[in-house]
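Subject: sequence -> structure tokens, single chain

Hey, anyone have a minute? Need the predicted structure for the following. Not urgent.
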Amino acid sequence: MTPPDERASLRDGVRFAFGTLTVLPARITRWDRPAARTGMACAPLAGLVVGVLAATPGVLLLVLGGGPLLAAAVTVAVPAALTRGLHLDGLADTADGLGSAKPAGEALRIMKQSDIGPFGVVALLLVLLVQAGALADLYAESWVHGALATVIAAVTARLAMTLAARDGVPPARPEGLGAAVAGVLPTGSAAGIAALVAASAGAAALPVGPGAAVQCAGAVLIALAAAESLLRRCVRRFDGVTGDVFGALAEVAATTALVVLALG
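Reply:
Had a minute. Here:
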């Protein structure tokens, strides 16, 4: 069993999750491995709050007579604002690092630079366009489809971070958020959280219909598979994970989930 002094309370974990993954007011009371362990387990909860906050203005715009594309654009903008664009920045930096074809050390140096290269620009444009396009299709079906997809995508984005924080995934640098959360969660716990989120997504969609429930649960699993593929690529390429990689995983998972849900 974990010694008492190596445990963190649920409150400490929630504060860690919201304080590191959002700009919502949350005073981090502990910055250590136990707090990181509980915090990364609570990451999908932060995604749930972000998803609800993102879906609200989109639904309001539809009710007030706005079109699906406008609602989708505003919905996509909210998570970016609630993270100060850090996840999008991580996506761009990771794309630049992967596209550089440089050794791990040099690629990490490129990722740490403040500017964004061509690979990062293209990655940002494509991801934002795909997210807005998928959400526009979903909002065109109904506000229920759009709102549900928004919440599922936001939760799945943070769930991808939870899985990336499992043991066996090393940090690429000795400092930063990646080093703080890399390997903090037992693999079994991370897998259990993933199964719970997928089941919850399916249950949330049951009022829409059994087909929607299967699609929502499947969207979570397919999005996690896409994020896992990127994670393995980054570990091979950079010899571990960084905070930028965590951000990239979140954006890839969210985008994949939205695309799968829009296909229905």
